[in-house]
Design brief:
Layout lengths: L1 H14 L4 E2 L4 E2 L4 E2 L7 E3 L4 E2 L4 E4 L10 E3 L4 E2 L4 E4 L2 E4 L4 E2 L4 E3 L21 E5 L4 E2 L4 E3 L3 E5 L4 E2 L4 E2 L7 E4 L4 E7 L4 E4 L4
Parallel strand pairs: 1-4, 2-5, 3-6, 4-7, 5-8, 6-9, 7-10, 8-11, 9-12, 10-13, 11-14, 12-15, 13-16, 14-17, 15-18, 17-19
Antiparallel strand pairs: 19-20, 20-21
């Protein structure tokens, strides 16, 4: 119920040591955030977090940095996961459909003699999602290394797997994701990009 969500959000704000926690935030009570990780998480004003969302922070030794940053008016769809070892920034007004995965590292697997779960994680990279972007249902944004950025007002198609950067005003789709359309400011329209 709306009241349960409101009470949960208030409890988080008052009892968790968030790096930042804005005004008029709504976090569903099924959201998973570890209390000791919350100091690496910044949440702007008017942010909405749907049910069964998981915010995960991997400790890496660089613990003073803000690792997850949700800009004002971001909307995180249900069952989405944001997992940061280094830094994941969502600028203002980013919209995540349900089931989106944003991850700036991966599981280490190099030693074939050991189970993967016991090998820790890779160093990874960082991710910046520009303002006004829309990430479609089930899309995956994963940075293996370096900086992955999606320019502002870009659209990521459903079930796309994005492992590299794309410029502002892009429509991106597929696995691996490719540039499908781009906005032309002179013609004031979205133009299809020829696929080679």
């Amino acid at each position: 119920s709306a009241m349960a969500v409101k009470l949960h959000t208030l409890r988080l704000q008052r009892t968790y040591p968030f790096g930042g926690f804005g005004k008029r935030v709504s976090v569903h009570y099924s959201t998973e955030i570890a209390r000791d990780q919350s100091r690496h998480i910044w949440i702007g004003d008017d942010v909405y977090v749907g049910r069964d969302v998981w915010f995960n922070v991997e400790m890496s030794g660089d613990e003073d940095k803000r690792k997850i940053n949700l800009g004002s008016r971001c909307k995180v769809g249900k069952r989405s996961i944001i997992s940061a070892r280094n830094q994941i920034i969502l600028e203002e007004d980013v919209l995540l459909a349900p089931g989106v995965l944003i991850m700036d590292h991966n599981h280490e697997y190099r030693d074939p003699e050991r189970p993967i779960y016991s090998q820790g994680t890779t160093c990874g990279g960082s991710i910046t999602i520009g303002r006004n972007c829309w990430l479609g249902y089930g899309s995956v944004i994963c940075s293996g290394r370096g900086e992955l950025s999606l320019g502002r007002n870009s659209v990521i198609g459903a079930n796309s797997v994005v492992t590299k950067s794309f410029p502002a005003f892009s429509v991106v789709a597929g696995n691996p994701a490719k540039l499908i359309r781009q906005y032309d400011g002179n013609l004031k329209q979205w133009l299809r990009v020829p696929q080679g």
